[in-house]
Specification:
mainly alpha, 79% helix
Length: 306
Amino acid sequence: MEQKSNTVLIVLAFFSIYVIWGSTYLLNKIAVQELPPFMLAGFRFFIAGLLIFIICKVMGIPLKITPKQLKNTIIAGFLFLAYGNGVVVWALQYIDSGFAALEISAQPLVVLLLMRVLQGKKIQAMSLVGIALGFIGIYLLISQKSIISQENSAFGMILVFSAMISWAYGSLFVGKANLPTNFFVNTGYQMFMGGFLMFIISVSTGEKWLSPLVWSSKVQWAMVLLIVLGSIVAFTSFNYLLRNVSPEKVATSTYVNPIIALLLGWYFLNEQITKQSILAAIILLTGVYFINTKKKLTIYSRFKRN
């Protein structure tokens, strides 16, 4: 009975990281059409952080952390959320949600290159193939006339790429940083601090804040879903899967999220899916697979043996 229960939880958790995370691009796109981007993202993560703190209190999980851990959660909150997420929401004003998701699917490529530059980590043969395919896929994606012709589309693409660099550096930072041992507490502080930092950015850039009471009903619902499902449920599911299945299986969300985002953007927002976008997606996601796989190239292995 317990094994059956675990199987159900694993299936639900995969649904969360596949569909819910894939849908956040659509939800952010809906909300940013009405709300300023940093105020939107700040509200989402600040409230999510508060809710996580409340849940921790109810569950009896201690929230006390050291000053060093607090400093590191602020840094991580900035890299992942204030810049990494807030700038993507900003970019959604200029590019389609599905396009943004596809561009972000190249994140493993950026992480790999940063590890090479900052840590001197050797890039394996399979990963080199993945990097080559990734660059080809990105080129096909951003070179489309239908996208280039859109006003400020190039600016939106640059914003997304800079956010990817922030996420990649954040991934390397948290791998070595002294952070709260409880992942729920760690997430709560990162979201709370990230949201707070985004509020500061919002005020400093002169964004006009709008009361939730004057938001349209579709934006109100989008925000509720982003906070509860996108920020709390999906992330909890992600951490649950990391403890119960192999990392390779969890990493499959990298391939599914862009497809979900493309389909939802096409269905709900009438975003265009071109043949070149489909080809770029296939090549780009194949490149991500080569980067994530631990297998060695047959030709490379034979060369090493000889």
